[in-house]
């Protein structure tokens, strides 16, 4: 069984995610002496990058609700001698004072939120006036699976609604920031294009739920799997979802 850490490490190696993260660091312009926060830090990869950018006079903090992730991230930071630190916390109740941070980033968290407006207001609270936030998220309505029967794939897509409360998170990021009192500074996007192994791992929960709920039959899954294997063998396949990133500045 693939662990959450393995999945996060696999995702971190996807070229599209790497490109979008590099773009995000460039436009966020986190620099020496800044205080920076990463919400939903996972294994801590991006907080280590932020720690390098803020230097010894700054502060880079990662927050995650999963205590196991916090422990892993702190261990990885210690192993590299990084000054990054990680704490357990709730997206809706960030354990920091008002106006504490110069920059906040939040990647692939909004797709899991039932109340994204509450989270955005909390981000605004912990940012100083003029501070910037970078939101990055997937838009699962853009998911592409090829080859395969279009009807079967369309029914599989309906399962995403049961796994993600904010399925269209990516396209809604700009509006979330605007409504919370941010000015939009930049917008970017990348396709998260997966190789067959990564796609199999990432889409496994969708297949399991679809079969359990009777959305597709075992025969339909067997036929789809056969088509996918044939396509992979001849090099005719595609698995992707589009990710969007929005940089906003907190207005006074």
UniProtKB/TrEMBL annotation:
InterPro entries: Methyltransf_25, Methyltransf_Superfamily, SAM-dependent_MTases_sf. It comes from the Bacteria. Pfam families: Methyltransf_25. Keywords: Methyltransferase, Transferase. One of its GO terms (biological process) is methylation. One of its GO terms (molecular function) is methyltransferase activity. Residues 37-131 form the Methyltransferase domain. This is Methyltransferase domain-containing protein. The lineage of its organism: Bacteria, Bacillati, Actinomycetota, Actinomycetes, Mycobacteriales.
